[in-house]
Amino acid sequence: MLRQRIKIWLVAIVAGAGLAAGLIPSATAAPSAAADACTSAPNWQQGAWYVTGNVVKYTDGKYYIAEHDNPGYDPTISTWYWNPHTCSGGGNPSPSGFVVSESQFNQMFPSRNSFYTYSGLTAALSAYPGFANSGSDTVKKQEAAAFLANVSHETGGLVHIVEQNQANYPHYCDWSQPYGCPAGQAAYYGRGPIQLSWNFNYKAAGDALGIDLLNNPWLVQNDAAVAWKTGLWYWNTQNGPGTMTPHNAMVNQAGFGQTIRSINGSLECDGKNPAQVQSRVNNYTQFTQILGVPTGSNLYC
């Protein structure tokens, strides 16, 4: 039902749309990130943008670290931009199985709230095993970057756990639903990485995840894994104002712009709020750079 998909994206306005506008994290890798970045080092790709500190696996199986930002220069030729790198982890996949390593996650969110833990995110992945795990290695990383880019925009760089405007809290109770608002009229405000809101969305997400969020919505702000699961629930199952889920948009290569449309398209797309769209695109561009993959086409909605 359309109203059951109103969600979440209404919070982009009432909670202050564009929390992340102007808060784009630095694209330069922290020096400490290089040591373990190769646990999920991508294959080097000519033409992909790399930033200082990125580690790549070259075609000969050896690893190189970017000493300077560059547009995908060959590490064996452009030695000013790249240095050979020894991977202490042997270049094996991230222990979590996620295409984003913990060091890359920290690079994406240098000022994040300690609530939004990497372990909480990886623990949530079991709820939707297809997320960032479908298609080629590039597609997997593009989907992860797209999800985290939208999350960054919604939360000001993973800073905000709950909606900041408390005056809006009583508005998210739809008494026409047969189950009402058992946790209280003001209990269903925006929480988590995609700011889950409204009693019907807590009910739907909780039913899908096997968690009683209708009666205990506070779990979303107290349990990092639950918070991340609600974000993944929306990403993988809800079209919102779009025509496809964000997951399908990335897996089927419809483009990052379609993820924006599915999350907040009624308020941002088709020229309604280009600054907010640009903020999301900036995040996505930066995160794909960190992961060493191209952005793909159709970035805007």
UniProtKB/TrEMBL annotation:
<feature type="disulfide bond">
    <location>
        <begin position="269"/>
        <end position="301"/>
    </location>
</feature>
<keyword id="KW-0732">Signal</keyword>
<dbReference type="GO" id="GO:0005975">
    <property type="term" value="P:carbohydrate metabolic process"/>
</dbReference>
<dbReference type="InterPro" id="IPR000726">
    <property type="entry name" value="Glyco_hydro_19_cat"/>
</dbReference>
<dbReference type="GO" id="GO:0050832">
    <property type="term" value="P:defense response to fungus"/>
</dbReference>
<dbReference type="GO" id="GO:0004568">
    <property type="term" value="F:chitinase activity"/>
</dbReference>
<keyword id="KW-0611">Plant defense</keyword>
<dbReference type="GO" id="GO:0016998">
    <property type="term" value="P:cell wall macromolecule catabolic process"/>
</dbReference>
<feature type="signal peptide">
    <location>
        <begin position="1"/>
        <end position="29"/>
    </location>
</feature>
<dbReference type="InterPro" id="IPR023346">
    <property type="entry name" value="Lysozyme-like_dom_sf"/>
</dbReference>
<dbReference type="InterPro" id="IPR016283">
    <property type="entry name" value="Glyco_hydro_19"/>
</dbReference>
<protein>
    <submittedName>
        <fullName>Chitinase</fullName>
    </submittedName>
</protein>
<feature type="disulfide bond">
    <location>
        <begin position="173"/>
        <end position="181"/>
    </location>
</feature>
<dbReference type="GO" id="GO:0006032">
    <property type="term" value="P:chitin catabolic process"/>
</dbReference>
<feature type="domain" description="Glycoside hydrolase family 19 catalytic">
    <location>
        <begin position="99"/>
        <end position="301"/>
    </location>
</feature>
<keyword id="KW-1015">Disulfide bond</keyword>
<feature type="active site" description="Proton donor">
    <location>
        <position position="154"/>
    </location>
</feature>
<dbReference type="Pfam" id="PF00182">
    <property type="entry name" value="Glyco_hydro_19"/>
</dbReference>
